[in-house]
Each structure stands twice: as structure tokens, then as C-alpha cells.
Amino acid sequence: MRIAFDPLAGMKLSPSRGADLAGRPPTILVFDSGLGGLTVHRELVRARPDARFVYCADDAAFPYGGLDEDHLVARVVAVMDRLISAHAPDCVVIACNTASTLVLPHLRARFPLPFVGTVPAIKPACERSASRMVSILATPGTVARDYTKALVATYGGGCEVTLVGAPRLAGLAEATMRGETADPAAVAAEIAPCFVDRAGRRTDAVALACTHYPLLVDTFRALAPWPVDWIDPAPAIARRLTQILGPAGPAAEPKPATAILTGGAALASLSAMFRGFGLAETRVEPLPLH
Ligand code: DGL
Question: What residue ranges are annotated as transmembrane (predicted)?
Fold first, then answer.
């Protein structure tokens, strides 16, 4: 099942094929295990307001952070098989670090399409840090990846990098999107290992390496023991999309956008939330996790 690959291939400027649109607006498929990819989706809409967006939350398999690697590869390839044949996207954005750090080479080998991934923003975090102490806040799956370790080795730039795999944060972010209040003590406990204070130096930059976490960034700021730079990769992903597809034309008109759920729990409350992100239609296309 595993494909051997250069662990840093996803960081090179042009790992994907470009898209030949011949002047028509593109169809862009945005994919995550759940609602975190919406933090990327909102930036992509700003970059290409003319595109037809399809957002898929593979909520039947949420959270990806707890799946073993072979299972996750098989799952994402199976869901993508179905989505690509149903929606014929011009470009796919994997708005999930847990999937991107493992599955991108499999997807690129299988589908003749450009894929944009989301991987931990280790290089920007290290470049921005004055104290040279940086933390990467991710899922347990992402911090365990060879890919993530290779990013630290290549782009750590002499910084002390602390990898924090938070087991509960993505679930807490989903709960807030369903209208619940995340327990501040639980959130504080999840982010606490990011804050390292040693020998007169303190962490000053934290990369949000799970797309769910920007949904909670205001809570993180309120609970942080001291201020840090919280780095959200979404603007960089939107820039990468523009490199691949080109900028929007002058007469960019928003197109109807659809959200697809593979499970569909709490659909009623989620439809209103999706509308807030410009996804007017919400559909359940069941794909149980086996
Ligand atoms: N949003 C996903 C990410 O960026 C992960 C959430 C999950 O564990 O499913 O890593």
C-alpha cells in the first residue's frame, strides 16, 4: 500500500500538474476529515471567488488523527475516487495536515490532477521566531509522520522545535462549530505543552498544523500563558492555488457552492453553519468507515 517518496516533495514549488482551464472558471474540491478545512476554504474563496467550490468533510471517518497510516491512505483514496468521478474538479485542495503528510504521493500517483496539500508551517514559524523556540501544534498522527520530522530537519533553521500532538483539540473545535462551548480547561491543557520557558528563552511562535485549530485561535490567545505568534497556513495555501490556477478573471461572480458530508451527524445545525461559509447546499453522501 505504501508508495516510496521524497518526504519533502510536497514542499517543492511545482509538484503538481497545472490545470488547463481555457478561460472557464475552475471547479475546486476542498477536502478535510471534518470542519477544519473551512479555515482554508474561506481563504480559497477570496483568491478565486469565480470558482465552483465543492467542500467535502469525511465526517464518517473523523478524526483522522486517530487512524493508523494504512487505514488512512486507503480511506482517503477511496473517498477521493468517488468525489473526483462525481465532481470532475480541476484542482483538489487537501485541507488537512493529517492526510496531506501521508497521502499526497498516493493521490498524485493515481489521479491526473493538481493537488494542493496542507503541511505544517515549520519554515515560516522558524523564520518568524526571535527566541528560536517554536512549537508545532498538530494531531497525534501529524507529529508522528516521517514527513513532519523531515520538515523539521530541513527547515528548522537551528530552532528548538517542539512537536505537540493534541488528542482532543480537533474534536473540541468541531463541537464549537456545532454551537457548543469548548471547555477552557480542556483547551488550556491541550495547548500547554506548546509553551516552553527555559534558560531565559520562551516559545514565541506556534504553527497551527491542523486546519481545525484556527477555529479556536481566539480561545488559544485568551488562554495562552504569554503572547505568541499563531501561524495559520491558509493564506499560503491560497497563494499556492493561485499559482496553479492563475488569478480570478475581472468579472468574477460567486458560483453556488456545495458541502458534502460522508456521515452527516448533526446535519441540521451544520447546514446553517455551512451557509455562513458560502456553501448554500449541504448534502449527505454516505460512505461509512469500515
Ligand atoms: N483537520 C485535520 C488536520 O489538518 C485533522 C483533524 C482530524 O484529526 O481529523 O490535520
Answer: none
Task: Render pLDDT for 143-167 as a digit per residue (tens, 0 to 9).
Answer: 999 999 999 999 999 999 999 999 9
- Whether residues 109 and 240 share a domain: the answer is yes
The residue among 216, 232, 248 that closes a domain is 232
From ligand 1's centre to the CA of 209, what distance in Å? 9
Q: How far apart are CA 37 and CA 115, in angstroms?
A: 15
260-288 pLDDT, tens digit per residue, is: 999 998 777 889 999 999 999 999 999 98
CA–CA distances in Å: residue 201 to residues 108, 152, 191, 229, 241: 42, 20, 18, 15, 37
3-state DSSP percent of the chain in helix, strand and coil, to 5: 45, 15, 40
* 8 A C-beta contact, residue 26 and residue 51: yes
Strand 133-138's sheet: what is its strand order?
160-165, 133-138, 205-208, 229-231
Among 242, 277, 264, 283, which Cα is nearest to 34's? 264
Work out how many domains the chain is built from and give that number. Answer: 2
Specify whether 167 is located in the same domain as 243.
Answer: no
**Binding pocket residue ranges, ligand 1, CB within 6 Å:** 32-34, 36, 62-65, 96-98, 139, 142, 170, 210-212
Does residue 86 sit in the same domain as residue 60? yes
111/165 same-domain check: no
- Domain span holding position 244: 17-119+235-284
CATH number of the CATH domain containing 138: 3.40.50.1860
pLDDT recorded at residue 252: 67
For residue 10, tell me if it sits in a domain: no
Please give the average per-residue pLDDT across 186-203, as a whole number. 98
